[in-house]
Design a protein that fits this description.
The protein is α+β, with helices and mostly antiparallel strands. It has a single domain (about 10-155), classed as Peptide deformylase (Peptide Deformylase, Alpha-Beta Complex), CATH 3.90.45.10. It has two helices and eight strands, in the order H-E-E-E-E-E-E-E-H-E. Strands 1-2-3-6-7 form a five-stranded antiparallel β-sheet, sandwiched between helices. Strands 4-5-8 form a three-stranded antiparallel β-sheet. Strand 6 and strand 7 (about 120-125) form a beta hairpin. The longest helix has 16 residues, at about 25-40. The protein is globular. The structure holds zinc ion. The site of zinc ion (ZN) has 4 residues, from helix 2. Zinc ion binds near residues 91, 133 and 137.
Length: about 160
C-alpha cells in the first residue's frame, strides 16, 4: 500500500488542465493503485483524480459504495447529460468545506480501463455526481466554484 500526498485547494497545481494519457505503462498502473489506497485511506473519499495527487493526467477513480465497486477511468469523456440534481459535495482537496452543487441527473461516460480497453458507462444520481466532480478536476475546476447559492460552508468537526 502506498499513499500519495494530496494537493490542496491553495496549491496552483489543482487549477491546472490535465493532459491525456498516451500510453498505459506500469507507472500508470502504480498511480491507479496508489490513488485507490489514498482514496480509501481518507474516510469520506468516494472519488479521486490524478491532479489531486500531483499528476496532471486525465485519470480518475470512483467508488460510491454501489454494485460497481471501484471504477477506473483513463482519458474519460462525458458523452451525454440529462436532467439535473442539486446536492452537497465535499472534496479531499478541499477539507472541511461543503456546498450545494447542481449536476446532471444522468450521464454517459466513455473511457479506457487499465488494460486500454474502451468502455461506456451510464450513471445516475450519486455516481453521476461523483463522476462529474472528478471530471472537473481534470479541467482544474473545483466544486466550490459551482456553489448554487454562492455559499461555501464549513463542516463542523464533531470529534471531542
Ligand atoms: Zn474533488
Amino acid at each position: 500500500m502506498a499513499l500519495r500526498n494530496l494537493v490542496l485547494e491553495d496549491d496552483p497545481l489543482i487549477r491546472k488542465h490535465s493532459r491525456p494519457v498516451d500510453e498505459i505503462t506500469p507507472r500508470i498502473h502504480k498511480l491507479l493503485d496508489d490513488m485507490a489506497d489514498t482514496m480509501y485511506f481518507e474516510n469520506r473519499g468516494i472519488g479521486i483524480a490524478a491532479p489531486q495527487v500531483g499528476v496532471l493526467r486525465r485519470i480518475f477513480i470512483v467508488d460510491v459504495g454501489d454494485d460497481h465497486g471501484l471504477i477506473e477511468f483513463i482519458n474519460p469523456e462525458i458523452t451525454y447529460r440529462e436532467g439535473s440534481q442539486v446536492g452537497s459535495e465535499g472534496c479531499l482537496s478541499v477539507p472541511g468545506k461543503t456546498c450545494e452543487v447542481e449536476r446532471p441527473k444522468k450521464i454517459k461516460v466513455k473511457a479506457l480501463d487499465r488494460n486500454g480497453n474502451e468502455f461506456e458507462l451510464e450513471a445516475e444520481d450519486l455516481l453521476a455526481r461523483c463522476i462529474c466532480h472528478e471530471y472537473d478536476h481534470l479541467e482544474g475546476v473545483l466544486f466550490i466554484d459551482k456553489s448554487v447559492d454562492g455559499q461555501v460552508y464549513r463542516i463542523e468537526d464533531n470529534d471531542e
